[in-house]
Design goal:
Layout: E1 2-7, H1 15-18, E2 27-28, E3 31-32, H2 33-43, E4 48-53, H3 57-65, H4 67-71, E5 73-77, E6 83-87, E7 95-100, H5 107-113, H6 115-118, E8 123-127, E9 130-132, H7 136-146, E10 150-156, E11 163-166, E12 173-177, E13 186-188, E14 192-194, H8 212-219, E15 223-227, E16 232-234, H9 238-250
Parallel strand pairs: 1-4, 1-8, 4-7, 10-15
Antiparallel strand pairs: 2-3, 5-6, 8-14, 9-16, 10-13, 10-14, 11-12, 11-13
Length: 259
C-alpha cells in the first residue's frame, strides 16, 4: 500500500530550525524525522512513498537525490578516473515520489494534488512531524474489516488538539470538538488509511482536510477511529524535538520498531 506523507507546511511553531529547512527535515539522531516515519512504514512492508512537498521543498529533494552519499562510505577520485565510488552502502527498498504541492496549499489540497500518483487504490497517509509505535498491519486490517472510506488513529494525549467523540460499539467518529484541559478523550494522530473515494471530498487547494472532508465523512458514517494505546509524539515545538532527541539518544525510542 502506498504511503502519502504531508511535508509541505511552514513549521512556524519550531522556527528555531524551520527557518532553514522544512519541519520534516529536522533531525532526530542525525536523521530527518521524515526518515524515521518512513522507517516505521517500511518495517511493515510499505515501501512506496509519495511526499507532499511545499515549503523549502528543494531540501527534501536534495536529501533523497544524495541519499547514497548521506548513508554510505564514498571515494571521490579526482585523478585520471574522475569517478565516485560508494562503499558498503545500506540503502532502503524505497520508491519515493516527491511532489511539489504548492507553497500555500492546505492539507486537503496537498492530498488532492497527488491523486494521480495514488491511483484508484487504498492508501495510507500521515503527517511528516510525528512518530509512533503503531502496528501498521493491525491498522490496515482494522480499516479493511470496517469497509468504510477513512480510518484515523486516535490516541490519548494531554495536548492542544481537537477531540474525537467515538462510538464505543462501532468505533465510528461521531463529532469533533475543542479539547479542554481535563478532557480524557482521544485525539487524531494522523496515521490514516484512506480509500480513493476520499478525493471526492476535497474541493481544491484551499481545503483543510481536517475540516470539511473529515466532517462530511463523519456525517455520512464513513470515518472510523483505530485506538492506539502506545506511543505517539508530534514535533511541533523545540521542546518536543528535544524530547524525541533524548529518547533516541537513550536507546529507548519507542517508535524504533525496525532493527
Amino acid at each position: 500500500m502506498k504511503v502519502v506523507i504531508l511535508a509541505g507546511g511552514f513549521g512556524t511553531r519550531i522556527s528555531e530550525e524551520s527557518h532553514l529547512k522544512p519541519k520534516p527535515m529536522i533531525e532526530i539522531g542525525e536523521k530527518p524525522i521524515l526518515w524515521h516515519i518512513m522507517k516505521e512504514y517500511s518495517h511493515y512492508g510499505h515501501n512506496e512513498f509519495i511526499i507532499c512537498c511545499g515549503y523549502k521543498q528543494h531540501k527534501i529533494k536534495e536529501y533523497f537525490a544524495d541519499y547514497y552519499l548521506y548513508n554510505g562510505d564514498v571515494t571521490f577520485d579526482f585523478g585520471h578516473e574522475n569517478s565516485i565510488t560508494i562503499h558498503n552502502n545500506v540503502s532502503e527498498p524505497w520508491k519515493v515520489t516527491l511532489v511539489d504541492t504548492g507553497l500555500h496549499t492546505m492539507t486537503g489540497g496537498r492530498i488532492k494534488r497527488i491523486q494521480r500518483y495514488v491511483g484508484n487504490e487504498p492508501f495510507m497517509m500521515t503527517y511528516g512531524d510525528g512518530v509512533a509505535d503503531i502496528d501498521m498491519d493491525k491498522l490496515v486490517r482494522f480499516h479493511e474489516e470496517r469497509g468504510q472510506i477513512a480510518t484515523l488513529t486516535a490516541v490519548h494525549i494531554g495536548q492542544r488538539f481537537g477531540v474525537l467523540d467515538i462510538d464505543r460499539r462501532s468505533w465510528e467518529v461521531k463529532a469533533f470538538r475543542e479539547k479542554s484541559s481535563a478532557d480524557g478523550s482521544r485525539v487524531s494522530a494522523g496515521y490514516m488509511v484512506l480509500e480513493p473515494e476520499v478525493f471526492d471530498y476535497i474541493d481544491g487547494d484551499a481545503t483543510i482536510f481536517e475540516r470539511e472532508p473529515l466532517e462530511q465523512l463523519l456525517k455520512e458514517g464513513q470515518l472510523n477511529a483505530y485506538k492506539h494505546n502506545g506511543f505517539w509524539q508530534c514535533m511541533d515545538t523545540q521542546r518536543e524535538k528535544d524530547k524525541l532527541e533524548a529518547l533516541w539518544s537513550s536507546g529507548e525510542a519507542p517508535w524504533k520498531v525496525w532493527e
